[in-house]
Design brief:
Elements: E1 3-10, H1 14-25, E2 31-34, E3 50-51, H2 58-71, H3 74-78, E4 89-93, H4 98-110, E5 116-118, H5 120-126, E6 137-141, E7 145-146, H6 149-162, E8 166-168, E9 173-178, E10 184-189, E11 194-202, H7 208-213, E12 222-232, E13 242-245, E14 250-254, E15 260-264, E16 271-272, H8 284-297, E17 305-316, E18 323-326, E19 332-336, H9 346-358
Parallel strand pairs: 1-2, 1-11, 2-8, 4-13, 11-19
Antiparallel strand pairs: 3-7, 4-6, 5-6, 9-10, 10-11, 12-15, 12-16, 12-17, 13-14, 14-15, 18-19
Helix pairs in contact: 1-6, 1-9, 2-9
Bound molecules: flavin-adenine dinucleotide.
Length: 396
Protein backbone atom coordinates (compact mmCIF):
# COMPACT_ATOMS: atom_id res chain seq x y z
CA UNK A 1 0.00 0.00 0.00
CA UNK A 2 1.35 3.46 -0.87
CA UNK A 3 1.77 5.71 2.15
CA UNK A 4 0.82 9.37 1.89
CA UNK A 5 0.82 12.63 3.85
CA UNK A 6 -0.22 16.16 3.07
CA UNK A 7 3.35 17.32 3.65
CA UNK A 8 6.39 15.06 3.26
CA UNK A 9 9.62 16.56 4.58
CA UNK A 10 12.79 14.97 3.26
CA UNK A 11 15.65 15.41 5.74
CA UNK A 12 15.56 15.07 9.52
CA UNK A 13 18.04 17.81 10.43
CA UNK A 14 17.40 21.09 12.22
CA UNK A 15 15.51 22.77 9.40
CA UNK A 16 13.23 19.88 8.43
CA UNK A 17 12.41 19.14 12.07
CA UNK A 18 11.82 22.80 12.97
CA UNK A 19 9.37 22.95 10.06
CA UNK A 20 7.61 19.75 11.13
CA UNK A 21 7.23 21.17 14.64
CA UNK A 22 5.97 24.55 13.36
CA UNK A 23 3.46 22.98 10.97
CA UNK A 24 2.10 20.84 13.79
CA UNK A 25 1.87 23.88 16.11
CA UNK A 26 -0.21 25.54 13.40
CA UNK A 27 -2.55 22.53 13.28
CA UNK A 28 -1.12 20.77 10.20
CA UNK A 29 -0.25 17.38 11.65
CA UNK A 30 -0.52 15.27 8.49
CA UNK A 31 3.25 15.57 8.14
CA UNK A 32 5.77 12.81 7.51
CA UNK A 33 9.52 13.35 7.94
CA UNK A 34 11.84 10.99 6.04
CA UNK A 35 15.46 10.69 7.17
CA UNK A 36 17.87 8.33 5.47
CA UNK A 37 20.06 7.86 8.55
CA UNK A 38 19.13 8.88 12.09
CA UNK A 39 17.74 12.26 13.10
CA UNK A 40 20.25 15.09 13.29
CA UNK A 41 23.06 12.89 12.00
CA UNK A 42 23.80 15.21 9.05
CA UNK A 43 25.52 18.58 9.34
CA UNK A 44 23.38 19.45 12.35
CA UNK A 45 25.64 17.08 14.28
CA UNK A 46 28.65 19.25 13.37
CA UNK A 47 27.21 22.64 14.30
CA UNK A 48 29.07 25.00 16.61
CA UNK A 49 25.66 26.23 17.74
CA UNK A 50 26.62 29.88 18.02
CA UNK A 51 23.73 32.22 18.67
CA UNK A 52 23.94 35.91 17.80
CA UNK A 53 21.62 38.41 16.21
CA UNK A 54 24.49 40.21 14.55
CA UNK A 55 23.46 40.18 10.88
CA UNK A 56 23.53 42.80 8.18
CA UNK A 57 20.28 41.47 6.67
CA UNK A 58 17.29 42.72 8.63
CA UNK A 59 15.15 39.60 8.19
CA UNK A 60 17.99 37.39 9.42
CA UNK A 61 18.62 39.56 12.49
CA UNK A 62 14.90 39.36 13.29
CA UNK A 63 14.94 35.58 12.75
CA UNK A 64 17.95 35.16 15.04
CA UNK A 65 16.23 37.29 17.69
CA UNK A 66 13.22 34.98 17.49
CA UNK A 67 15.67 32.10 17.91
CA UNK A 68 17.11 33.61 21.09
CA UNK A 69 13.62 33.95 22.53
CA UNK A 70 12.65 30.36 21.69
CA UNK A 71 15.96 28.92 22.91
CA UNK A 72 15.78 30.79 26.20
CA UNK A 73 12.28 29.38 26.80
CA UNK A 74 13.20 25.85 25.70
CA UNK A 75 12.28 24.25 29.03
CA UNK A 76 8.72 25.56 28.75
CA UNK A 77 8.31 25.06 24.99
CA UNK A 78 9.94 21.65 24.60
CA UNK A 79 10.08 20.41 28.19
CA UNK A 80 13.80 19.74 27.82
CA UNK A 81 17.23 21.34 27.93
CA UNK A 82 18.67 22.17 24.50
CA UNK A 83 22.09 23.10 25.84
CA UNK A 84 21.52 26.83 25.33
CA UNK A 85 23.99 28.85 27.39
CA UNK A 86 23.60 32.64 27.38
CA UNK A 87 27.26 33.42 27.73
CA UNK A 88 26.88 36.73 25.92
CA UNK A 89 28.26 37.35 22.43
CA UNK A 90 30.92 39.88 21.41
CA UNK A 91 31.85 40.87 17.88
CA UNK A 92 35.07 42.83 17.44
CA UNK A 93 36.09 44.79 14.31
CA UNK A 94 39.09 46.75 13.09
CA UNK A 95 39.19 50.47 12.31
CA UNK A 96 38.00 49.87 8.72
CA UNK A 97 34.76 48.28 9.92
CA UNK A 98 33.56 50.60 12.67
CA UNK A 99 30.97 52.30 10.44
CA UNK A 100 29.23 49.05 9.38
CA UNK A 101 29.35 47.80 12.98
CA UNK A 102 27.55 50.94 14.16
CA UNK A 103 25.02 50.76 11.33
CA UNK A 104 24.30 47.09 11.95
CA UNK A 105 23.87 47.50 15.71
CA UNK A 106 21.56 50.46 15.10
CA UNK A 107 19.42 48.21 12.90
CA UNK A 108 19.43 45.55 15.65
CA UNK A 109 18.21 48.09 18.21
CA UNK A 110 15.33 48.95 15.88
CA UNK A 111 14.38 45.26 16.10
CA UNK A 112 14.54 45.44 19.93
CA UNK A 113 17.60 43.18 20.10
CA UNK A 114 19.47 43.93 23.33
CA UNK A 115 22.90 45.10 22.11
CA UNK A 116 25.50 47.52 23.45
CA UNK A 117 28.66 49.11 22.14
CA UNK A 118 31.35 48.25 24.67
CA UNK A 119 34.98 49.35 24.93
CA UNK A 120 38.15 47.31 25.29
CA UNK A 121 38.15 47.67 29.09
CA UNK A 122 34.72 46.12 29.28
CA UNK A 123 35.73 43.29 26.91
CA UNK A 124 38.76 42.59 29.11
CA UNK A 125 36.52 42.53 32.17
CA UNK A 126 34.33 39.92 30.45
CA UNK A 127 37.30 37.95 29.07
CA UNK A 128 40.42 38.52 31.24
CA UNK A 129 43.68 38.18 29.32
CA UNK A 130 42.27 38.72 25.85
CA UNK A 131 44.54 40.85 23.60
CA UNK A 132 42.63 43.58 21.84
CA UNK A 133 45.28 45.56 19.92
CA UNK A 134 43.78 44.53 16.58
CA UNK A 135 40.33 45.90 17.38
CA UNK A 136 38.75 49.34 17.17
CA UNK A 137 35.17 48.63 18.29
CA UNK A 138 32.95 45.94 19.76
CA UNK A 139 29.25 45.13 19.98
CA UNK A 140 27.96 43.01 22.86
CA UNK A 141 24.74 40.98 22.93
CA UNK A 142 24.24 39.91 26.54
CA UNK A 143 21.58 37.35 25.56
CA UNK A 144 23.66 35.63 22.86
CA UNK A 145 25.78 32.53 23.37
CA UNK A 146 25.58 29.00 22.06
CA UNK A 147 23.35 25.96 22.10
CA UNK A 148 23.57 22.29 21.28
CA UNK A 149 22.27 21.72 17.76
CA UNK A 150 21.71 17.99 18.21
CA UNK A 151 19.71 18.48 21.42
CA UNK A 152 17.75 21.29 19.76
CA UNK A 153 16.87 19.23 16.70
CA UNK A 154 15.81 16.30 18.87
CA UNK A 155 13.64 18.66 20.93
CA UNK A 156 11.89 19.81 17.71
CA UNK A 157 11.39 16.16 16.75
CA UNK A 158 10.01 15.15 20.10
CA UNK A 159 7.58 18.08 20.21
CA UNK A 160 6.48 17.44 16.61
CA UNK A 161 5.85 13.76 17.39
CA UNK A 162 3.82 14.64 20.47
CA UNK A 163 1.66 16.84 18.23
CA UNK A 164 1.07 14.01 15.74
CA UNK A 165 3.88 14.27 13.16
CA UNK A 166 5.23 10.93 11.87
CA UNK A 167 8.97 10.43 11.48
CA UNK A 168 10.64 7.57 9.60
CA UNK A 169 14.39 7.02 9.97
CA UNK A 170 16.57 4.74 7.82
CA UNK A 171 14.35 5.84 4.95
CA UNK A 172 16.27 7.11 1.97
CA UNK A 173 14.56 9.05 -0.77
CA UNK A 174 15.93 8.04 -4.17
CA UNK A 175 14.07 10.60 -6.27
CA UNK A 176 11.15 12.97 -6.49
CA UNK A 177 8.02 11.78 -8.28
CA UNK A 178 6.71 14.06 -11.02
CA UNK A 179 3.59 14.10 -13.15
CA UNK A 180 3.86 14.78 -16.87
CA UNK A 181 3.09 18.46 -16.25
CA UNK A 182 6.13 18.61 -13.97
CA UNK A 183 4.26 18.76 -10.67
CA UNK A 184 5.93 16.87 -7.83
CA UNK A 185 3.45 14.49 -6.16
CA UNK A 186 5.65 12.48 -3.83
CA UNK A 187 8.90 10.61 -3.43
CA UNK A 188 10.33 7.30 -4.54
CA UNK A 189 12.22 5.57 -1.74
CA UNK A 190 15.44 3.62 -2.20
CA UNK A 191 13.52 0.42 -1.39
CA UNK A 192 11.31 1.04 -4.44
CA UNK A 193 8.16 2.10 -2.58
CA UNK A 194 6.39 5.42 -3.12
CA UNK A 195 5.05 8.02 -0.72
CA UNK A 196 2.58 10.53 -2.11
CA UNK A 197 2.12 14.09 -0.88
CA UNK A 198 0.44 17.39 -1.72
CA UNK A 199 3.77 19.08 -1.03
CA UNK A 200 7.29 17.73 -0.70
CA UNK A 201 9.70 19.85 1.36
CA UNK A 202 13.36 19.35 0.52
CA UNK A 203 15.42 19.90 3.70
CA UNK A 204 18.41 17.83 2.75
CA UNK A 205 21.18 20.38 3.29
CA UNK A 206 24.38 19.52 1.48
CA UNK A 207 22.66 16.64 -0.35
CA UNK A 208 19.95 18.83 -1.91
CA UNK A 209 21.35 19.30 -5.44
CA UNK A 210 21.28 15.55 -6.09
CA UNK A 211 17.60 15.22 -5.17
CA UNK A 212 16.67 18.50 -6.88
CA UNK A 213 18.20 17.18 -10.10
CA UNK A 214 15.75 14.26 -10.06
CA UNK A 215 12.99 16.84 -10.67
CA UNK A 216 15.09 18.80 -13.15
CA UNK A 217 15.91 21.63 -10.75
CA UNK A 218 19.39 23.03 -10.54
CA UNK A 219 19.65 23.95 -6.85
CA UNK A 220 22.49 26.47 -6.47
CA UNK A 221 24.06 24.85 -3.43
CA UNK A 222 27.71 23.95 -3.18
CA UNK A 223 29.37 22.04 -0.39
CA UNK A 224 32.09 23.84 1.56
CA UNK A 225 34.21 21.95 4.06
CA UNK A 226 34.95 23.70 7.34
CA UNK A 227 37.12 22.51 10.23
CA UNK A 228 36.54 22.94 13.93
CA UNK A 229 39.33 22.80 16.51
CA UNK A 230 39.00 22.01 20.20
CA UNK A 231 41.85 23.57 22.13
CA UNK A 232 42.92 22.96 25.71
CA UNK A 233 44.52 26.22 26.84
CA UNK A 234 46.43 24.40 29.58
CA UNK A 235 43.77 25.58 32.00
CA UNK A 236 40.00 25.38 32.12
CA UNK A 237 38.63 28.37 30.24
CA UNK A 238 36.48 30.34 32.67
CA UNK A 239 32.92 31.36 31.73
CA UNK A 240 33.53 33.83 28.92
CA UNK A 241 31.37 35.23 26.12
CA UNK A 242 31.29 33.78 22.65
CA UNK A 243 33.63 35.93 20.53
CA UNK A 244 33.60 36.74 16.79
CA UNK A 245 36.92 38.14 15.66
CA UNK A 246 36.21 39.97 12.41
CA UNK A 247 39.81 41.11 12.06
CA UNK A 248 41.49 37.71 11.96
CA UNK A 249 38.25 35.98 10.87
CA UNK A 250 37.78 33.40 13.56
CA UNK A 251 35.15 32.61 16.19
CA UNK A 252 35.65 31.04 19.60
CA UNK A 253 33.49 29.79 22.39
CA UNK A 254 33.91 27.82 25.56
CA UNK A 255 33.10 24.13 25.56
CA UNK A 256 31.33 22.65 28.61
CA UNK A 257 34.61 20.90 29.63
CA UNK A 258 36.59 24.15 29.61
CA UNK A 259 38.24 23.68 26.20
CA UNK A 260 37.85 26.34 23.51
CA UNK A 261 35.93 25.60 20.33
CA UNK A 262 37.59 27.46 17.45
CA UNK A 263 36.01 27.98 14.04
CA UNK A 264 36.93 29.75 10.84
CA UNK A 265 35.15 32.82 9.43
CA UNK A 266 37.41 33.36 6.41
CA UNK A 267 35.48 32.22 3.36
CA UNK A 268 37.74 33.85 0.78
CA UNK A 269 39.11 30.50 -0.41
CA UNK A 270 36.40 27.89 0.08
CA UNK A 271 37.34 24.24 -0.01
CA UNK A 272 34.64 22.47 -2.06
CA UNK A 273 33.91 18.95 -0.89
CA UNK A 274 31.79 15.84 -1.34
CA UNK A 275 29.47 15.57 1.70
CA UNK A 276 29.77 11.77 1.57
CA UNK A 277 33.56 11.69 1.30
CA UNK A 278 35.55 14.31 3.17
CA UNK A 279 38.23 14.12 5.82
CA UNK A 280 36.69 14.52 9.28
CA UNK A 281 39.87 15.98 10.74
CA UNK A 282 41.42 19.43 10.38
CA UNK A 283 44.38 19.54 8.00
CA UNK A 284 47.77 20.56 9.44
CA UNK A 285 47.89 23.89 7.60
CA UNK A 286 44.40 24.78 8.88
CA UNK A 287 45.46 23.93 12.43
CA UNK A 288 48.60 26.05 12.11
CA UNK A 289 46.65 29.06 10.80
CA UNK A 290 43.94 28.77 13.42
CA UNK A 291 46.37 28.36 16.31
CA UNK A 292 48.35 31.37 15.05
CA UNK A 293 45.20 33.51 15.13
CA UNK A 294 44.22 32.16 18.53
CA UNK A 295 47.65 32.91 19.92
CA UNK A 296 47.24 36.52 18.80
CA UNK A 297 43.97 36.83 20.68
CA UNK A 298 44.95 34.83 23.76
CA UNK A 299 48.73 35.26 24.09
CA UNK A 300 48.77 34.09 27.72
CA UNK A 301 47.39 30.59 27.24
CA UNK A 302 49.48 28.61 29.77
CA UNK A 303 50.08 25.42 27.77
CA UNK A 304 47.91 25.24 24.66
CA UNK A 305 47.42 22.00 22.80
CA UNK A 306 44.94 20.62 20.32
CA UNK A 307 42.46 18.33 22.09
CA UNK A 308 40.79 17.21 18.88
CA UNK A 309 39.36 18.41 15.60
CA UNK A 310 36.64 17.53 13.15
CA UNK A 311 35.16 18.88 9.95
CA UNK A 312 31.69 19.52 8.59
CA UNK A 313 30.19 20.89 5.41
CA UNK A 314 28.25 24.07 4.81
CA UNK A 315 25.56 23.93 2.11
CA UNK A 316 26.37 27.31 0.58
CA UNK A 317 24.39 29.33 -1.94
CA UNK A 318 26.00 32.09 -4.04
CA UNK A 319 25.00 34.75 -1.46
CA UNK A 320 25.58 32.53 1.61
CA UNK A 321 21.90 32.78 2.52
CA UNK A 322 19.22 30.10 2.45
CA UNK A 323 16.43 29.41 0.02
CA UNK A 324 13.13 29.11 1.90
CA UNK A 325 10.08 28.93 -0.33
CA UNK A 326 8.44 27.30 -3.33
CA UNK A 327 10.67 25.94 -6.07
CA UNK A 328 10.03 26.55 -9.78
CA UNK A 329 8.38 23.11 -9.83
CA UNK A 330 4.84 22.97 -8.37
CA UNK A 331 4.53 20.73 -5.31
CA UNK A 332 8.15 21.15 -4.28
CA UNK A 333 9.18 23.54 -1.47
CA UNK A 334 12.84 24.26 -0.76
CA UNK A 335 14.50 24.64 2.62
CA UNK A 336 18.16 24.54 1.65
CA UNK A 337 21.45 26.41 1.58
CA UNK A 338 21.82 27.47 5.19
CA UNK A 339 25.45 28.29 4.46
CA UNK A 340 26.84 27.69 7.95
CA UNK A 341 24.35 29.79 9.91
CA UNK A 342 21.20 27.71 10.14
CA UNK A 343 21.24 26.88 13.84
CA UNK A 344 20.34 30.20 15.42
CA UNK A 345 17.62 30.95 12.91
CA UNK A 346 16.09 27.44 12.89
CA UNK A 347 13.03 28.27 15.07
CA UNK A 348 12.25 31.17 12.75
CA UNK A 349 12.94 29.05 9.66
CA UNK A 350 10.35 26.53 10.85
CA UNK A 351 7.88 29.31 11.54
CA UNK A 352 8.49 31.01 8.18
CA UNK A 353 8.29 27.73 6.25
CA UNK A 354 4.98 26.87 7.97
CA UNK A 355 3.67 30.38 7.22
CA UNK A 356 4.63 30.12 3.55
CA UNK A 357 3.27 26.59 3.19
CA UNK A 358 -0.05 27.36 4.88
CA UNK A 359 -0.67 31.05 4.10
CA UNK A 360 1.86 31.99 1.42
CA UNK A 361 3.11 34.92 3.53
CA UNK A 362 5.33 35.52 6.57
CA UNK A 363 3.43 36.18 9.80
CA UNK A 364 6.30 38.27 11.19
CA UNK A 365 6.39 41.80 9.74
CA UNK A 366 10.12 41.97 10.50
CA UNK A 367 10.82 38.88 8.37
CA UNK A 368 10.25 39.33 4.66
CA UNK A 369 9.65 35.84 3.25
CA UNK A 370 10.43 37.13 -0.22
CA UNK A 371 14.05 37.70 0.83
CA UNK A 372 14.67 33.95 0.60
CA UNK A 373 13.03 33.27 -2.77
CA UNK A 374 14.70 30.83 -5.18
CA UNK A 375 14.49 33.23 -8.10
CA UNK A 376 16.72 35.91 -6.55
CA UNK A 377 19.85 34.43 -8.10
CA UNK A 378 18.46 34.45 -11.65
CA UNK A 379 17.14 37.96 -11.03
CA UNK A 380 20.66 39.08 -10.09
CA UNK A 381 19.34 40.26 -6.73
CA UNK A 382 21.29 38.29 -4.11
CA UNK A 383 20.40 38.72 -0.45
CA UNK A 384 23.32 40.70 0.93
CA UNK A 385 24.15 42.68 4.04
CA UNK A 386 23.00 46.29 4.09
CA UNK A 387 26.24 47.19 5.84
CA UNK A 388 28.87 44.64 4.76
CA UNK A 389 32.20 44.28 6.52
CA UNK A 390 35.39 44.84 4.56
CA UNK A 391 37.09 41.44 4.33
CA UNK A 392 34.22 39.61 6.03
CA UNK A 393 31.40 39.92 3.51
CA UNK A 394 30.00 36.53 4.42
CA UNK A 395 29.30 37.77 7.95
CA UNK A 396 25.79 38.42 6.71
C1 LIG B 1 30.99 22.90 11.10
C2 LIG B 1 29.69 23.65 11.19
C3 LIG B 1 29.54 24.65 12.14
C4 LIG B 1 28.34 25.36 12.21
N1 LIG B 1 28.20 26.32 13.17
C5 LIG B 1 27.04 27.03 13.25
C6 LIG B 1 26.89 28.02 14.25
O1 LIG B 1 27.77 28.25 15.06
N2 LIG B 1 25.71 28.71 14.30
C7 LIG B 1 24.71 28.50 13.38
O2 LIG B 1 23.69 29.20 13.44
N3 LIG B 1 24.83 27.54 12.44
C8 LIG B 1 25.96 26.80 12.36
N4 LIG B 1 26.11 25.84 11.41
C9 LIG B 1 25.02 25.63 10.45
C10 LIG B 1 23.92 24.73 10.94
O3 LIG B 1 24.41 23.75 11.78
C11 LIG B 1 23.24 24.14 9.71
O4 LIG B 1 22.79 25.19 8.88
C12 LIG B 1 22.09 23.23 10.06
O5 LIG B 1 22.44 22.24 10.99
C13 LIG B 1 21.61 22.57 8.78
O6 LIG B 1 20.49 21.80 9.06
P1 LIG B 1 19.75 21.11 7.85
O7 LIG B 1 18.54 20.49 8.43
O8 LIG B 1 19.59 22.07 6.72
O9 LIG B 1 20.81 20.03 7.30
P2 LIG B 1 21.32 18.64 7.90
O10 LIG B 1 21.46 18.66 9.37
O11 LIG B 1 22.51 18.23 7.12
O12 LIG B 1 20.09 17.68 7.60
C14 LIG B 1 19.81 17.18 6.31
C15 LIG B 1 19.36 15.75 6.48
O13 LIG B 1 18.92 15.23 5.24
C16 LIG B 1 19.21 13.87 5.23
N5 LIG B 1 19.16 13.39 3.85
C17 LIG B 1 20.01 13.73 2.85
N6 LIG B 1 19.66 13.11 1.71
C18 LIG B 1 18.57 12.35 2.00
C19 LIG B 1 17.75 11.47 1.23
N7 LIG B 1 18.02 11.23 -0.06
N8 LIG B 1 16.70 10.84 1.85
C20 LIG B 1 16.43 11.09 3.17
N9 LIG B 1 17.18 11.91 3.94
C21 LIG B 1 18.24 12.54 3.36
C22 LIG B 1 20.59 13.79 5.83
O14 LIG B 1 20.89 12.49 6.31
C23 LIG B 1 20.49 14.83 6.95
O15 LIG B 1 20.17 14.28 8.20
C24 LIG B 1 27.28 25.08 11.31
C25 LIG B 1 27.42 24.05 10.37
C26 LIG B 1 28.61 23.33 10.32
C27 LIG B 1 28.75 22.24 9.30
Amino acid sequence: MTDSARVVIVGGGLEGLATAWSLAERGETDVLVLERNTLCSGMTAKSSGIVRCHYGVRSLAAMAWHGVQVFSSADEIFGTDIGFRQTGYIVGVGANNVAPLDANTEMHRELDVPVEAIDADEVTRLWPGIALDDFAAFAYEPLGGHGDAYMTGMAYASKARRLGVRIRQSTEVASLLQRENGEVYGVLLADGSEIHADTVVLATGAWSPTLGATAGIDIPVRVQRESILLVDQGMRTPDVPTFSDLVNLQYIRREPNGDLLVGNSDHSQPEWADPDAYSNRADDDVVATAIGKLDRLLPHMPDPRLSSSYAGCYDVTPDYNPVIGPSPVPGLFLLVGFSGHGYKISPAVGRLAADLLLDGISSDPAVDGDDFRFSRFDEGKPLVSLHPYVGAGEMR
